[in-house]
Amino acid sequence: MKELISFVIPTFNEASHIITSLEKLLVYISKYNYEIIFVDDSKDNTFELIAKYINEKSLKSRIKTIRGKGIGKGAAVKAGIQEASGEIIFYLDSDLTIPLNNIDIFIEEIKRTNSDGVIGRRILSKKGKSLIRYIFSLALLILGRSFIFHSNYFYDTQCGFKVFKKESIKKLTSKQCVNDGMFDLELLYIAKLYNMQISQITVTPLPEIRKSVLQLGKCVWKDPLDLLAIKVNRLLGKYN
Q1: Second label for 91, Cα 20 to 30 Å away, from 18, 22, 40, 134?
Q2: Does residue 182 contact residue 172 with C-beta atoms inside 8 Å?
Q3: Contact 35, 84 (CB under 8 A)
Q4: Which H, E and C letters describe 7-64, residue by residue?
Q5: Hey, is 197 helix, strand or coil?
Q6: pLDDT in tens, 123-172
Q7: Alpha-carbon dihedral of residues 177, 178, 179, 181, nearest 10 degrees?
Q8: Is 159 in a helix, a strand, or coil?
Q9: Beta-carbon neighbour count of residue 21 at 10 Å?
Q10: What are residue 51's phi and psi, to 5 degrees?
Q11: What order of strands is seen across the sheet that includes strand 117-121?
Q12: pTM for the whole thing?
């Protein structure tokens, strides 16, 4: 039997497009032995739509659902990874803005290089973003490089398209403390501390199919605090 590949997808108020995204993903990954794990933190009916689709299409053996209640994206991804059984584990943003052909490319790369993980690397652009969102993204990039990594090695820590070996990502999430948007950066920081091999592949996002659910007002104060927490956790030995 082919090795199992897990796809962990956190969702937050995605009712407008989640079934379209799911159907696209199912068509593309049909050639693999796969499981999909949705972790839903929504206030709308996203969870109910997914559950209805699973029942109608008899996909209970392939698709699992976990319901969160205000747990945050980082905690949602962690919960999905803890549930995942695949030897290779992806986590993807639900709008699938990174073209799905990258699934093949990333699987080939993680096997070819024997890396612990492969992450998407988007080129930071103002296209399709408000000026405030662009400036905030740039500021976080600079803060992450200078305050956490002290290098430019990871150009894009926040891309919602990553794949890891099971043993590597489960080790990383066992040390994860950040429950919100900076969890990606925290996981990569822990990977660096553990001398894990992380490959990077440049990806070109598709136009977004829905308005960003990013709560910018919250992120402006919460994300810098999470960066500080990562630094403090390191000093306290929580990543040892």
Answers
A1: 134
A2: no
A3: yes
A4: EEEEECCCCCCHHHHHHHHHHHHCCCEEEEEEEECCCCCHHHHHHHHHHHHCCCCCEE
A5: coil
A6: 766 565 566 666 767 777 777 777 787 777 888 999 999 999 999 999 99
A7: -160
A8: coil
A9: 21
A10: -60, -40
A11: 63-67, 33-40, 4-11, 88-92, 161-165, 117-121, 198-202
A12: 0.91
